[in-house]
Amino acid sequence: MILLGLVIGADLFALWQGNHSYQLLGKLIDGLGSVTPQEANQADSLYEASGIVQMATTVATAVVFVVWFHRTRVNAEVFAPEYHVKKRAWAIWGWVVPVANLWFPRQIAADIWNASADGKSRSRALLNGWWLLWILNLIFGRLASQRYARAREAEEIKGAIAGLMASDALNILAAVLAILFVHRLTRMQHEKALRGPVWQ
């Protein structure tokens, strides 16, 4: 949860710096003010630095998240082995296998959620909302990054930065829901473990 918070911080930094670069490009395009080469270079350097920070926090968080996810899968198998459609290894490989990573982790997360619930009906709206935002950002972020890499003219760069900023905003929302998901699922498993086995 702390690392997800750092991801949000990195995204906010990228948003702030992206907005600064966006404003500078707007000045150049509209001719409403002068932008020195030093200002432009500094803005580029800071925006590039924000991307590096984003990458570093994302990779660190992804590693810890997958470890946590696998552990919750192991716990859930103890609670209710009959709920699980996929083998335990898919809790890790499901995130990295192309195409399968678009729905395998969501299915495994749903199985973990069901096995960890206390028997009462629990809405999976939080899980579904997080996964929807995650997938949208995965797709939208990839398209925005490709557009930024291809941009050459000031107008194109400005539009690409707007796309990257929208992707950052989506990622922030996804990270907030991920924090809530991690907290809720961890608490559900903790409470179920404290109750001990239920004898039928």
From TrEMBL:
Keywords: Membrane, Transmembrane, Transmembrane helix. Pfam families: DUF4328. The keyword Transmembrane applies. The keyword Cell cycle does not apply. Residues 35-187 form the DUF4328 domain. The chain crosses the membrane at residues 51-69, 125-145, 157-182. It comes from the Bacteria. This is DUF4328 domain-containing protein.
